[in-house]
Amino acid sequence: MLTSIASRSASKRILLSNGFHSSAPSLKKVAVLGAAGGIGQPLALLCKLSPNITEVACYDVVNTPGVAADLSHIPTASRVTGGLPSAGSWPPSGNTGLEQALTGADVVIIPAGVPRKPGMTRDDLFNTNASIVQTLAEGCAKYCPEAILGIISNPVNSTVPIAAEVMKKAGVYDKRKVIGVTTLDVCRANTFAGAAMGKDPKDLDVPVIGGHAGITILPLYSQVEGFTDAVNAEELDAITVRTQFGGDEVVKAKAGTGSATLSMAYAGYIFTENVLKAMNGEEIVQAAYVESDLTDAAYFASPCKFGPDGVEEVLHYGELSAYEQTWLEKMLPDLKKQIQKGVDFVSK
Fold first, then answer.
1. How far is the C-alpha of 230 from the C-alpha of 226, rounded, in Å?
2. Which DSSP state fits 70?
3. N or C, which end of the chain has less CB nearby within 10 Å?
4. How far is Cα 218 from Cα 215, in angstroms, rounded to an integer?
5. Which residues contact 317 (CB under 8 A, 6 or more apart)?
6. What angle do CA 120, 298, 241 make, to 5 degrees?
């Protein structure tokens, strides 16, 4: 069993990098599906700045040609394309816009879907976003079956199983390459812990495990040196709940105009850069929601070692405090239900 300290120190080197520098560019094509949305636009912008990317392929149901034209004026080496669903033809030719975005893609990031509004849970988004992710995953299975998929579309606890089931049906499933992006949970945990401890968040690394919704998000603050000395039990509970429901905090503050888009785009970019660095041979450990046997939940977020083909190894999350163990036991039934909901959606 790998220790929590080893996992933390390895992931710390990676997550807190700003991602704009790399000693050996891997020169890859990255497709952003949902590129005209609140997450997709800033995510595509950040990808345009990356020295590791040769093409940013933007796809959405509206506005992507304009987004791509705008991004193309930024003076970096990467090429930008923007595609829409095809208008239709006879004989049927399929969705040529999606085909062009995905063909040759090494990494596909999927933030597509509707955002949360006040009072909505991630699960409320299921019916709409489940269908969107299923359709896009079908495209990935057909046009870029070997690409690494990073799924941002909520509810991630269910949409990752949806994508996995689609890939299984197509006979191209590779558990190393279907990944839920939980990087924002780590970003939030580091930010909140830094504020509580009076430290710069970049000097902290809080492991976050479980899922990516409400109580399924479990920050392991006990593994951060000095944290338990800086807060009392009541403060620990407050910061844990704030980490779990950080998305709700943003939804409420935006008062119906959107959800966490800018911070999610940043986190999605950091995830993408780390995947590209690993594909180029760098040693990378970062949190991810993947097929896992660490618990009796089929999918689980924990530190993962990445390599050229995606997740090379799912690392153990280390020792839990009694407080964290209680949260783990509370979250698992919910997480398993959300996973099964995704599986059932594809099999119905």
1. 6
2. H
3. C
4. 7
5. 4, 7, 207, 209, 220, 294, 302, 303
6. 40
Segment 22-53, tens digit of pLDDT: 445 558 999 999 999 999 999 999 999 999 99
Q: Cα–Cα–Cα angle for 40, 113, 46, nearest 5°?
A: 10
* Matching residue, tokens 């998929």: 149
**Are the CB atoms for 54 and 28 separated by under 8 Å?**
yes
Peptide bond into 91 cis (omega under 30): yes
> pTM here?
0.91
CA distance 267 to 53: 17
pLDDT digits over 51-73, tens only? 999 999 999 999 999 999 999 99
Calpha distance 342→126 (Å, rounded): 9
Check pLDDT > 90 for residue 87.
no
Residue type, 234: E
The pairing of strands 284-291 and 299-307 is antiparallel
End-to-end CA distance of the chain: 38
Residue 232 has φ and ψ, to the nearest 5°, of: -95, 180
CA angle 253, 258, 261 (to 5 degrees): 95
Residue 316 bears catalytic tag: no
For residue 280, with 0-12 CB atoms within 10 Å meaning exposed, 13-18 middle and 19 or more buried, which class applies? middle
Which positions ≥6 away from 129 have C-beta within 8 Å?
Answer: 112, 113, 114, 153, 154, 155, 159
Task: Check 21, 73, 212, 316 and give the catalytic one.
Answer: 212
Cβ contact 122:155 at 8 Å: yes
* Low-confidence winner among 84-88, 90-94, 176-180, 219-223 (lowest mean pLDDT): 90-94
Listing DSSP states for 310-324 in one string gives EEEEEPP-----HHH
